[in-house]
Amino acid sequence: VLKVATPQGTWVVPPHRAAWIPAGIRHHEEFRSRGTLRNLYFARGTCGGMPADCVTLDVSPLLRELIVHSAELGALDVRDAERLNLAKVLLHQLHRSPRSAVQPLPMPRDNRALAVALRLMADPSDDADLGAWAGRVGASKRTLQRAFM
Predict the structure, then answer these.
(1) Short-list 21, 56, 51, 12, CA closest to 39
(2) What distance in Å separates the CA atoms of residue 67 and residue 61, rounded to the nearest whole number?
(3) pLDDT digit string (tens) for 32-63?
């Protein structure tokens, strides 16, 4: 499972999905388990019609194999007819991939709640209760409850 964090939120991306991250979006990727990650990079202007924001895409078996094959080949030099065709099919499949219903988990706007969220993300095993978290960040329990709504 892959976790992708951007300033807009955090997505959890299971193996049968892919994260679409447009060029220029600052992000951080993190694995919570063993796995293989394959990144594909596209030149600006080659992906017209793809979302302008981060989304998760459902990955069909065909798209999965196209991604694996493309990653193994390396850069798809469009001057090579075979690689150009592969790039076209790959982009076509990306365009028609259904957007997953998974929405990003927004980060809290309140600095105290954000501190709690970031600490929990760094150490999910921390089992402190709400009162302990409130004391750590200088807020009341009720303030933290409101901030996380």
Answers:
(1) 21
(2) 10
(3) 677 788 988 888 888 888 988 888 999 999 99
The answer to whether the pTM exceeds 0.90 is no
Q: Phi-psi category of 98—alpha, beta or left, where left has phi over 0 and alpha has psi -120 to 50?
A: beta
Rounded Cα–Cα distance for residues 137 and 63 (Å): 45
Q: Considering the chain, what percentage of its residues have pLDDT values greater than 90?
A: 40
Give, for 5, the enclosing helix (H) or strand (E).
strand 2-6
Are 8 and 104 a contacting pair, CB within 8 Å? Answer: yes
Q: Which residues pair with 58 in a beta bridge?
A: 17
Helix boundaries (H) for 50-80:
61-73
**What are the tens digits of pLDDT across the range 94-118?**
999 998 876 667 778 899 998 998 8
Question: 13 forms bridges with which residues in the sheet?
Answer: 2
Question: From CA 40, how far away is CA 96, in angstroms rounded?
Answer: 17
d(CA 76, CA 45): 15
Match 């095993």 to its residue by tokens. 125
What are the φ and ψ backbone dihedral angles of 57, each rounded to 5 degrees? -115, 140
